[in-house]
Amino acid sequence: MQAYSSGFAKVYQQKWGNFSAVVAPILLHFYRETPSGQENQPVLDLCCGAGHLARLLLEAGFPVTGLDLSEAMLQHARENCREYIEQGKAHFIQGDASDFAVEGKFGLVVSTYDAMNHLPDLEALENCFKCVRKLEPTAFVFDMNTRKGLKRWNGISISEEEDLMLINRGVYEEGLPKAWMRLTGFSKQENGSYERFEETVHNLAVPLNWVKEALLRSGWQKIRFTTLRDLKQDLAEPENEGRVFVVAEP
Ligand SMILES: C[S@@+](CC[C@H](N)C(=O)[O-])C[C@H]1O[C@@H](n2cnc3c(N)ncnc32)[C@H](O)[C@@H]1O
């Protein structure tokens, strides 16, 4: 299980919303072209993190439910989307993406920024696909780091900003089922002192055809590997990408 701790969640909230800013317009464009999107059906954001993406979807007019394992991340999500929660348009719930059920109808289910790689194994991934399928959305769109992409995790990197010093130690060898990253950070607090945090995260490193087979076994019929460049353009060689976007439809 990989629920982010409070120290890491605070830094995530402050520093790592950029991916959502890039992804949101592309997901919105995709969803608006579907009948469910045109009917403004709600979106389920699985492993929603600090709610960066949820907020952008809410701003675009779609009700959103976010689900995440980490209460610390959910607290940021609730804060980031406070007015939409008050209006009854946003809900954030704690849960495990590999074993969940949520009330309501969702036109689209999304999961972004390595979240599916965070599940512990292929069995958990398949369970997740089944839980999503039961909701009967128009599509489930998620990204995954490929084994090629995870090669960039190998090694040590240090980044230093005025308010954050971050040391990443990554290990991934081809053939291993997971890549691991140990993050040690020092983040500046309001009183000027630095708080230390540690987080160890893993990414599942599985062949994409295994992912496809797990989706097919879970009842998804149309599975496409794409990139953010164009969610409609199928990739001929998805394993050559560092990150793919998977579009699964019933
Ligand atoms: C890299 S963050 C991505 C957050 C968000 N989707 C985004 O785009 O910024 C991964 C998130 O997955 C959550 N997570 C990891 N394992 C999970 C699980 N089994 N069920 C639900 N959430 C999980 C973590 O707590 C974290 O918030």
Beta content: 25-35%
Overall SS class: alpha/beta
Average pLDDT figure = 96
Apparent shape: globular
Main beta sheet strand tally, sense and closure: 7 strands, mixed
Structure, described:
A hairpin with a 5-residue loop joins strand 8 (178-188) and strand 9 (194-204). The mean pLDDT is 96. Strands 3-2-1-4-5-11-10 form a 7-stranded mixed sheet, with helices on both faces. A 4-stranded antiparallel sheet has the order 6-7-8-9, covered by helices on one side. The chain is globular and about 50 Å long. The protein is an alpha/beta fold and 250 residues long. Helix content is 32%, strand content 29%. It has 9 helices and 11 strands. The chain has 2 domains: 6-147 and 207-249, Rossmann fold (3-Layer(aba) Sandwich), CATH 3.40.50.150; 149-204, N-terminal domain of TfIIb. The two termini are 28 Å apart. Bound molecules: S-adenosylmethionine.
List the helices and strands and how they pair.
Layout: H1 6-15, H2 18-32, H3 35-38, E1 43-46, H4 52-59, E2 64-68, H5 71-80, H6 82-86, E3 90-94, E4 108-111, H7 122-134, E5 139-145, H8 147-150, E6 155-160, E7 164-171, E8 178-188, E9 194-204, H9 208-217, E10 222-226, E11 243-249
Helix pairs in contact: 1-5, 2-4, 7-9
Short summary of the structure?
The protein is of the alpha/beta class and 250 residues long. The protein is 32% helix and 29% strand. The chain folds into two domains: 6-147 and 207-249, Vaccinia Virus protein VP39 (Rossmann fold, 3-Layer(aba) Sandwich), CATH 3.40.50; 149-204, S-adenosyl-L-methionine-dependent methyltransferases (N-terminal domain of TfIIb), CATH 2.20.25.
